[in-house]
Specification:
This protein has 379 residues and is an alpha+beta fold. The chain has 3 domains: 50-66 and 309-378, Beta Barrel (conserved putative lor/sdh protein from methanococcus maripaludis s2 fold); 85-225, OB fold (Dihydrolipoamide Acetyltransferase, E2P); 228-305, Efflux pump adaptor protein, beta barrel domain (Elongation Factor Tu (Ef-tu), domain 3, Beta Barrel), CATH 2.40.30. It is built from 5 helices and 23 strands. Strand 15 and strand 16 form a beta hairpin. Helix 3 runs antiparallel to helix 4 (155-182). It is elongated and about 165 Å long. The two termini are 92 Å apart.
Length: 379
């Protein structure tokens, strides 16, 4: 029995070893099943273009041109403060008539409004009292002169009468001047005072309405503000690095955004002595005659011309390609290849030329029509 049991145990061990060997042979190899390693290929130069027929893309030679540097900035049309005149009334009261309104063009001496004022009535009363006193004292002076000639009065009494008559004349003149200051005519007594336009221009501010009250100067705003817009200011912001291109007394070209085909010349009238600490700019003031199209608050483009001339390359405008907010040109790279080179485009020149500040030099060859080559390369 022990022999049989031992045989059975040996047989079981042999079976277990056989099963373990089968499992070991059937298990997959992780290294064999792993994906092949990634092959990284070197990318080609995106700025290099190869074409089959390079003769289809004619070349142009960049020319040399001497030009003065230009500085283009934006500005705003503003009123010339020396031509901005307020309309006031020295007499307080109530508005009874208004003959002009905001935005109207008025001429010098034109009636703007009428004010009914108790100040006028009081001033006329003082004027009449002064006239009556002058008449009385003149009569007394004449009587004193007659009595003095008869020897009835002393000379000092004549001098006192003369002094009183002279003072009465001063009172009359003062009262008359007061009426003139208030804006009324001494020959036409009335409680109404007429307010006239002091200059010709456009009413840009109005602070009074019909039946409104007019107060004294110390606590009342201006009734109207009249601006003479025949000459205006253009206020520009110029960065401190560009200030050397702006000189007092020189001229700049002005282009209105609303009238792009119209060009004007403006004189640099003032360069602000204080920099804006937030954006690091200085206010540059231009004086420009208004042809009638400039309105307050308009945006304009001002171009300042530098004093020293610089050498720039000039190419056909079609040779400059504007792509991804950059300017490019194509230059031959040998054989059937062209290389795309980034440049800094400048101003346009007639006829159909453009300056190039950086990227190429005068004498370099460029493709005369960069857009056609770009479209061919993308196909």
């Amino acid at each position: 029995m022990r022999i049989v049991a031992g045989a059975m145990v040996a047989l079981l061990l042999a079976l277990l070893l056989a099963l373990a060997g089968c499992r070991a042979k059937g298990q997959p190899d992780p290294k064999a099943e792993a994906p092949p390693p990634t092959q990284v290929e070197n990318e080609s130069d995106v700025n290099m273009v190869t074409v089959d027929h390079p003769e289809e893309f004619p070349l142009a030679t960049a020319e040399l041109r001497e030009t003065a540097p230009e500085l283009a900035v934006t500005g705003v049309v503003s009123v010339d403060v020396s031509r901005n005149v307020p309309v006031i009334s020295l007499a307080s009261g109530r508005v009874v008539e208004i003959h002009a309104k905001l935005g109207d063009a008025v001429a010098k001496g034109q009636l703007l409004m009428r004010v009914q004022s108790a100040d006028i009535s009081s001033a006329f009363s003082d004027y009449r009292h002064a006239l009556a006193d002058r008449t009385l004292l003149r009569a007394q002076l004449a009587r004193s002169q007659l009595l003095f000639e008869k020897g009835a009065v002393a000379q000092k009494d004549l001098e006192v009468a003369q002094d009183a008559a002279d003072k009465a004349q001063v009172d009359v003149e003062t009262a008359a001047d007061h009426l003139k200051v208030l804006g009324v005519d001494v020959e036409h007594p009335s409680a109404l005072v007429d307010i006239y336009a002091p200059i010709s221009g456009v009413i840009v501010e109005q602070n009074v309405t019909n039946a409104g009250g007019v107060k004294t100067l110390d606590n009342s705003p201006n009734l109207f503000m009249i601006a003479d817009l025949s000459s205006v200011w253009v206020i520009c912001d110029v960065y401190e690095n560009d200030l050397p291109n702006v000189r007092l007394g020189e001229f700049a070209d002005i282009h209105l955004n609303g009238y792009p085909g119209q060009a004007m010349r403006a004189r640099v009238d003032n360069i602000g002595p204080v920099m804006d600490p937030a954006i690091r700019t200085a206010k540059v003031r231009l004086q420009v005659p208004n042809p009638g199209t400039m309105r307050l608050g308009m945006f304009v483009r001002a171009t300042f011309h530098g004093e020293r001339k610089e050498s720039r390359a000039v190419v056909p405008a079609s040779a400059v390609l504007h792509l991804h907010d950059r300017d490019w040109v194509y230059v031959p790279a040998g054989g059937k290849k062209f290389r795309r080179v980034e440049v800094t485009g400048g101003k346009m020149l007639p006829p159909n030329l453009q300056e190039v500040a950086t990227g190429i030099a005068p004498g370099d060859a460029v493709v005369s029509n960069a857009l056609v080559l770009q479209n061919t390369a993308e196909q």
